[in-house]
Write a structure and sequence with these properties.
single chain; alpha+beta; 2 domains; two-stranded antiparallel ribbon; globular
Length: 158
């Protein structure tokens, strides 16, 4: 009887450990992003600080703003505000600054003029759908919308 109880206890301890590991893993793949409205407010509130950091090419102050998870600088300065999902069901959210004040399809601060030329009007902004090699639409969809002069909200869905 004693061996049976030890075995049963071991089973439940193991089950508990597995449950805790699964909960931690699921939480890490959860939504850590700001909403569109929150990103608009963030830019409206901190635009002067953001522009000062961009002009100085030093993003220390931007990175202290609640909700900012990263900054990439290239053709544009892209500020990441989180994402959600796993693998092919992932979405990323943020905003970018472009001195030319025009909407573009950007990824990690780089943009492709050809892709940007393929954007279509979509509500208050513009959307773009990536195409497969055989010219059929993929499930990779991008949306961008102007917040302030030079500042644009973006979201990528893969």
């Amino acid at each position: 009887m004693r061996i049976f109880l030890k075995g049963l206890l071991g089973f439940f301890v193991g089950l508990f450990v597995i449950a805790v590991i699964l909960l931690v893993a699921l939480h890490s793949f959860g939504d850590n992003s700001l909403s569109k409205r929150e990103i608009f407010r963030l830019v409206e509130k901190h635009s002067e600080t953001i522009l000062a950091d961009i002009n100085a090419n030093d993003f220390a102050d931007i990175l202290t703003i609640d909700g900012v998870t990263g900054v990439e600088s290239g053709d544009v300065t892209a500020v990441e505000c989180g994402g959600e999902g796993l693998a092919s069901a992932t979405s990323y959210y943020g905003f970018y600054y472009i001195e030319a004040d025009k909407p573009v399809v950007q990824w990690n601060g780089m943009f492709d003029e050809a892709d940007s030329d393929e954007m279509i009007q979509d509500g208050d902004g513009f959307s773009y759908t990536e195409m497969h090699g055989d010219n059929t639409p993929s499930d990779n969809v991008y949306y961008t919308e102007r917040i302030l002069p030079g500042f644009y909200y973006y979201e990528w869905h893969f």
